[in-house]
Amino acid sequence: MVRLNRIYTKAGDGGQTRLVGGQKVRKDSLRITCYGTVDELSACLGLVRTALETSPHPAAAVTDVAGMLATVKRIQNELFNLGSDLATLLEDRHPKQPIVEARHIDALEREIDAWNDSLPELRSFVLPGGGPVAANLHLARTVCRRAERLAVELANHEPIGEHVVPYLNRLSDHLFVMSRHACRVYDQPEPLWEPATT
Q: What mean pLDDT is predicted for residues 58-77?
């Protein structure tokens, strides 16, 4: 159980923060930027949750909407695991620490395959849009790609958890397919790229 009794401590006023193992690092360090971007991604998924909870949907889509909502909630929790992973040097991990694991990636892949099987074949690139749920999923996808790029850069400088980059890579694909699924569930046309012909 996490207890947060004091919200501000003034400990970071000098531009530094501490990792889980107690090491002081600058707040603009690559590791902090990386898990800060993962936090930003979770906030984007909060917009997806709100859109799922408030956007009118066809009566026949109740089960699909509930399924997407449960999936987004699960992913937000997994992103906290990912943040824990990134906020801890590998040598400081403890056995019960929440981190992303291979099973989390497997779950994303199963959902991608299940949704993709029911979607029409793509004949052009998809533009962000397609209603509040799909549009916010596209926003989350782009932030996820940025988090992935930062994680790759971080891994070039110091060791990180073995599942961090694969999880973010698969999650960005998952969010893309989920946005297409949302267009179908909400009966919204998918905006497609129309190359300029002039």
A: 94
